[in-house]
Amino acid sequence: MKTPDIQLPEGMLPRFGETPEQVAVALADAVAEVLETRLAQAPRASLVVSGGSTPLPFFKALSEKALDWQRVDILLADERWVAEDDPASNTQLVKAHLLQGKAAAANYLSLKQQGATPLEGLAAVKAELADLALPLDVLILGMGNDGHTASLFPDAPELAEAISADCPNRVAAATPPSQSQQRITLTWPALKDARFTALHLKGQDKLETLEQALANPSDVMAMPVRAFLQPGLNVFWSP
Ligand SMILES: O=C1O[C@H](COP(=O)(O)O)[C@@H](O)[C@H](O)[C@H]1O
Q1: Ligand 1 center to 120 CA (angstroms)
Q2: How far is the CA of 22 from the CAs of 41, 53, 126, 227, 237, in angstroms?
Q3: Is this model's pTM higher than 0.90 or not?
Q4: What separation in Å is there between the alpha carbon of 78 and the centre of ligand 1?
């Protein structure tokens, strides 16, 4: 494969592959190694994943890893505020593709709780995450072509607070007019210090979006993914 023509800033780690499956296996290997190391040092480890279509082969590869899954807490970086049987539910996706096989023993913390809106359910979500230790151990982010990551959307009225270093909350409701469902998302203070962070991307369009984000890194309100484009970020990409 021709290496993609993109220059990542110094300190960001390119992990480019020829196929989505190859990259998914490389990402699963890396995540399993981090989790195994962490579980040797701590009673529990956390794994935050993203929804959407990109992570499916990664979920499958990771679910087959031999880890002490009972000591792993899995949650999403963001969720659509829909019932679990709705095809848009990221929880449904994680349960069907990641919490399978060996990984079925993991503990799942759901960002979708009772309530007609994410704002109504916020207190219950905070309670669900009350015992989750920060910093996170592993964070896998995706990215939309509008520059959103997690549910930190450029047009969400809640973005300024959720992406602020002073945001006092780990979770926030997100109601971007561009999206058909309301969302709930982990906030920047909860996400920013993960011990291992990967941006998992597929397709030429995502590479172009990443290039655009890198071209003007300071304007995080326009493209919230920019907040994560820091040294130490692992960028897993395939065509
Ligand atoms: O809406 C979302 O989309 C992004 C990317 O999804 P993909 O289908 O292009 O992989 C995802 O990272 C985010 O968690 C999700 O809520």
Answers
A1: 23
A2: 29, 16, 36, 27, 10
A3: yes
A4: 9
User: Which is it for strands 196-202 and 234-238: parallel, antiparallel or unpaired?
Assistant: parallel
Domain map (residue ranges) of the chain:
197-239
Q: 179 falls in which pLDDT band (50, 70, 90)?
A: very high
Q: What is the mean pLDDT of the chain?
A: 97
- Residues having CB closer than 6 A to ligand 1 are 50-54, 77-78, 142, 144, 150-151
- The token pair that represents 74 in the structure block: 């899995």
Give the number of the atom of ligand 1 that is nearest the alpha carbon of residue 51: 14
Of 1-5, 89-93, 162-166, 194-198, which gets the smallest average pLDDT? 1-5
Angle at 33 between CA 136 and CA 200, to 5 degrees: 65
Q: How confident is the model over 193-217, as pLDDT tens digits?
A: 999 999 999 999 999 999 999 999 9
Q: Which of 48, 50, 141, 185 to mutate to test the pocket of ligand 1 (most atoms within 8 A of CB)?
A: 50
Helix extents (H) in 42-152? 56-63, 90-97, 118-128
Report how far residue 1's alpha carbon sits from residue 228's, in angstroms, rounded to the nearest whole number: 27
ipTM score here? 0.93
| 157: Cβ contacts below 8 Å, ≥ 6 apart | 175
For residue 39, how far is its CA from the centre of ligand 1 (angstroms)?
Answer: 28
CA of 38 to the centre of ligand 1 (A): 27
Pairing of strands 13-16, 234-238: parallel
Percent pLDDT > 90 in the chain is 97
For range 66-71, the mean pLDDT: 98
Per the CB < 8 A criterion, the answer to whether 6 and 207 are in contact is yes
